Please model this.
Amino acid sequence: MSKIPNLEQISIDSCKLSIPLTLLKTYDSTIIKHIIELDKETGEVLDDFKKFAKRYFYQGFSVYVSIVENKRISRDSYEDSLIILINSKQIGVRYFEGITPLTLPLFYHLMTKEMKIFNCDYDTFLMSSITDIDFKKDYQIGLPNYKELVDGCETMTRPSSSKNKGKTKFSGKDNYGIEWSVRKGNRRAKTQPFVKIYHKGMELMSEKGSLDFFNRYLSAYYDVSNVMRIEVTVQDKKHLQSFKLGLKTFSLSEVISLSQEQMNSIISTCINKHLLPRTKSLAFKTEARMTPTNRIFLNALLGLTLDAKMSYERALNLLLNGIENDSSKSNNKKVLKRLYFDYVNNTDYHVKTEKVESIYSSFGWF
Model:
């Protein structure tokens, strides 16, 4: 198996590009049946883009294209424009590299030469306006440590009663992770940006996720079983301006040329909008500093399994007996299971803590 490229490096996973029709040499005329509406203030697609756009299915991935009428090109100029959704799947085996100056010619060749959706000069393509930009960063981390990382983020989320601002944790056979805010229709993107942490390996190998794509392009080359991803969405030009990156044209060319330091600042700014200061983080305890309550939990479980010779499951059920609240019972069960299996696996808490804390630092969570 090859080493997964671009680990702990940021790149763009997906974005929407806009090119005025007058700058195109040709384009598929059937796209005119797929007209969508944009928010005039933000430039965001008001409709469900994938639902109303024309879908081209090609070699195991999709390309979505639409036309928007009277799109603002400058302060006093409006033109009908082509909207194209590009994403990393469209470069197949180079998926993990993302959209970068090195891979961008592949997207251009795909759209203009192979699929012939439209045609324009490469310089025109580079000057496309860009919105709905998903910046991503991948890491390798074992599943138990990954779950600890997610739980730590959940614990330190800033309190909020608003779905558009607060957290949503998800767990199941198809994925495990946490996200904040909402991706679509987010009018407060600058203060409440969409951020998602999820298990990329689970998503790629899930039948509900990207299994067909994984089998076709990645499975022969990469072991993705321990790959996680953080992803943040920068919605539009105004959102980009808020990061003070010194951009002038806000074009595709400028955005893909951002340095790692600049893109790290984007992820850091976004994650810190949702998390309490890390100096107050209580996500981890070393074995020597295990909380008294957790020490009692572990001692009770070990006493029942080692001294009283009970099975692990029977001991677990006995300790949870009498807790009527389902949520409280579930949370305590998770704690007991984690403590027990850490003990059985002779977990080195220092190494465990260092790995997760290093990823927190890489997020730019301070």
User: Anything to note?
Assistant: Residues 280-288 have pLDDT under 50 and may be disordered. The first strand starts at residue 10 and ends at 20. The chain has 13 helices and twelve strands. The radius of gyration is 24 Å.
